[in-house]
Structures are given as C-alpha cells and as structure tokens.
Specification:
- It is a single chain.
- With about 230 residues, the protein is α+β, with helices and mostly antiparallel strands.
- It folds into two domains: about 130 residues, CBS-domain (Roll), CATH 3.10.580; about 90 residues, Alpha-Beta Plaits (2-Layer Sandwich).
- About 35% of the residues lie in helices and about 25% in strands.
- The protein contains eight helices and nine strands.
- The strands form three sheets. A four-stranded antiparallel sheet has the order 7-8-6-9. It has a three-stranded antiparallel sheet with strand order 1-2-3. It has a two-stranded antiparallel sheet with strand order 4-5.
- Strand 1 and strand 2 form a beta hairpin.
Length: about 230
C-alpha cells in the first residue's frame, strides 16, 4: 500500500522562528507529537518533536522564577531545537518502507514530501496501525489460524482449502518472509477466516491439527473492544 493512500494531508506546521513555548502549546492543543518545520515556500527544513521540547525545557529543579522561565521559553526558537534534514517519505513509496524508517530511526512519524521537497503530508505510527488492521481484516472478527508450513509451492493453499470446505470465508493470508521467524525450510502462515458455526469449528480444528502443524488458533470478539475501551473524562 502506498503512502499517498494513508497519509494525513491537513498538516500542522511551524516555522523556524516560532518560539518553543508556542510550539509546546500547539502540540498540547492539537494532541500531536511532532511538528514539521517549513520555510516560506512550504519546503521541509526540519522537524521538532515533543521529546525535543521536553529535553530543552528547564529542569523542575531550576532556580529560575516564573518570569525568567517564561522569558527563556519564549526566546528559544524552533530552529535551535529542530532536527535538520529529517527522515522523510514520498507519496509513491510504500507504507512498509515508512515503517522500516520509523523503526530504524526510532521515530513515530514521517513528513511526506514531493519531488520539489515541498511538504504535502505526514504519516504516523497510528496510520501504520490502521494499515495493519486493514490488511489483516481483524475488524471482521472471525478466527485466525497460525501454521508452520513447508516452504514450497502450494503449501498455503492446502490448509486454506480445508478451511473453505467447512464454510470458512478467507479474510486474509499473511506469511513470514524472514528466515529467523521460522524453522529452516518452513514459514509461518496466518490465515484469518470469517465466523464458523461452533459445531463445524470443532471439526475444522481437529482436521487442521491432524494434517498440519498448527501453532495456535485465536478468536477475537469485537464486543470486547467496546468493553475495554478507555473512558476519558
């Protein structure tokens, strides 16, 4: 999936000359963790995060009084804190590539720029999570079966056909590619299917366990999501 289909285009930005205090207030008001920094032409010149602001803030043990503290916060500019030449992605790159950049750089968001280096969007960890949910089809509920299968042509089709024979509608199939996540000559495969009647499900599980190496089966209930939702006063 491409960045352009999942990025946020309504991006809140700041300039290099904005004060640290204003940037901090803006982040809190908008409930965001990073602010791309652009020049007068809209080109990306840096990024500032809540961590940057927190690290630059005086310690709570400071001897400065409130007036001195406010002066310090208002006089410090974004250009003094921002990361110059930040990691970025382009709209025609994949979401998976963005995830790699976030993990390797230990960051939670990436500005999206066009071929003229102009900022056109931002993609965050939350966007990546949404892609994961979309790919797996977990919102449909149902059941996920995990298998350790031989790494050969047709090995995935075999358990999928068994699931279909019990009336299971295949929602998604995911397979590991990295050798370190499975035994040599095998790969882990995750098949999610729609809800199956309890009497059929017992027979399905038994046949799958008889024919394949089943790592686990898991059934999620969407009702549980509502029960466990965090209530914010």
């Amino acid at each position: 999936m491409l960045i352009q289909g999942w990025m946020t285009t309504d991006v809140i930005t700041v300039t290099e000359d904005m004060s640290m205090m204003k940037a901090s207030i803006l982040m809190k008001e908008k409930r965001i963790r990073s602010l791309p920094v652009v020049d007068e032409k809209g080109k990306l010149v840096g990024i500032v995060t809540d961590t940057d602001l927190r690290d630059a803030s005086p310690s709570k043990a400071t001897t400065l009084d409130v007036y001195e503290l406010n002066y310090l916060l208002s006089s410090m500019k974004i250009k003094d804190l921002m990361t110059k030449e930040p990691a970025y992605v382009k709209p025609d790159e994949t979401v998976e590539f963005a995830a790699i950049l976030m993990v390797e750089n230990k960051i939670s968001s990436l500005p999206v720029i066009n071929n003229k280096n102009a900022l056109i969007g931002i993609i965050t960890q939350t966007d990546i999570f949404k892609v994961l949910l979309n790919i797996t089809g977990v919102y449909t509920g149902g059941i996920q079966f995990a298998f350790s299968l031989e790494d050969r042509a047709g090995s995935i089709k075999e358990p999928a056909d068994v699931i279909r024979s019990y009336g299971g509608r295949i929602v998604s199939i995911l397979s590991t590619a990295a050798a370190e996540t499975a035994e040599e000559g095998r790969r882990n495969v995750y098949i999610r299917c729609g809800t199956i009647a309890e009497d059929k499900l017992r027979g399905l599980v038994k046949e799958l366990e008889d024919k394949f190496l089943v790592l686990y089966s898991s059934r999620e209930s969407m009702e549980e999501i509502e029960k466990r939702r965090v209530r914010i006063p």
